[in-house]
């Protein structure tokens, strides 16, 4: 038991695991609820032709264009405007899963600031690596907001 | 009339992905490789949609694992060290994959299937020859020691703290660049490569390797999935039952795995991979013609 306590794993890792793990669970549950609501009728899709088009190999652009009442390919954070529909809720859930990892990385990075010893361990190598990963993630999330 | 077709599709995708998740976890791998290669080899569903869903499944599955692993065994320093190249190259791979199918149309899809087929064949062969080591012996090397990657962990089954020394960190870093690119391009996940890299090249204990590899994938594929998410490749009616099926299958498979001889399941998995790989190469070549 003493040994177990002595080698307690680093806080930044545990924080990333908990934050991203819980957001993933919540996101999946929301997405499931959204799909169920969508199937029961409150949907932007014509599901019957969506399934047919998916199986016939149409690309995502055509699937969105042909089968949603918006008749356009939907980029970025479009689902925020249709959160009253099942598909909007499902996409919000999927977005929570996708971005849960980014929130987890932000929390990991923030937790590195609790001591200079951790922040500057090996001349700050791990802090730089965390910044690199986080920058790539945030850049992509920002790009999505431009669409 | 609309609802039964949709529900049938939902249940079929769920059942198919449940089987994949179940078999894959018993064989000691993630479901990403099987999911992507099977759906691309045996259905007409567009590669962008399959790859996006494959990545979403990989992300969801590994994050659930990461939550537990990071409380005890997984090494956050190895994670950050290898997740950085993996993340950057997975994103480049994702854009490359979207470029291939977007600009070259069905020829791009054919190239993608052909390349994926060759990679899946390689992975299948890799599964035959790889022999994992529980506690590899290592003296470490100068560069790797300077990085201070090691974090000892408490091993319950031995009731002691396991300390280890790592080697070949720069080589593992380079491998993660290539694996990240492949994962992003084909939506494969990367459990087939990162675990063995940490175990057999860096010489970390097997448990550290497998748990840390899951955390690396959970970070790297988070970035790789964003381009697919932006481009609308995640279709809820397909993505949600697929992720649910893979996760529930993996969870139940993990319980059965304790009582099953993983060696035989591994042989079956290898055969399935070789079969799917040959089929993908054939489909790719046929489409090119």
What overall form of chain A do the CA principal axes indicate?
elongated
Number of domains of chain B: 1
Measured distance between first and last alpha carbons of chain A = 53 Å
Widest sheet: strand ordering of chain B? 1-2
* Element pattern of chain A in H and E: HHHHHHH
Largest sheet of chain B: 2 strands, antiparallel
Number of helices of chain B: 10
What is the count of helical runs of chain A?
7
What is the chains' assembly state?
heterodimer
The count of strands of chain A amounts to 0
Rg over alpha carbons of chain A:
20 Å
Order of helices and strands of chain B: HHHHHEEHHHHH
Strand fraction of chain B equals under 5%
Largest sheet, strands/sense/barrel of chain A: none
Structure commentary:
By secondary structure, chain A is an all-alpha fold. Chain A has helices spanning 2-6, 11-39, 47-55, 60-67, 86-111, 116-119, 125-146. In chain A, α2 packs antiparallel against α5 and α3 (47-55) runs antiparallel to α4 (60-67). The longest helix of chain A is centred in the first third of the chain and has 29 residues, at 11-39. Chain A starts with a helix and ends with a helix. Chain B has 289 residues and is mostly helical. Chain B has one domain. In chain B, 77% of the residues lie in helices and 2% in strands. Chain B is built from 10 helices and 2 strands, in the order αααααββααααα. Chain B has helices at residues 2-26, 32-42, 47-69, 76-129, 142-147, 169-186, 191-201, 206-230, 236-257, 262-288; strands at 153-155, 160-162. A two-stranded antiparallel sheet of chain B has the order 1-2. The longest helix of chain B is centred in the middle third of the chain and has 54 residues, at 76-129. The model of chain B has no long low-confidence stretch (mean pLDDT 88). Classes of the chains: A mainly alpha (147), B mainly alpha (289). The interface between A and B is large, with 72 and 74 residues.
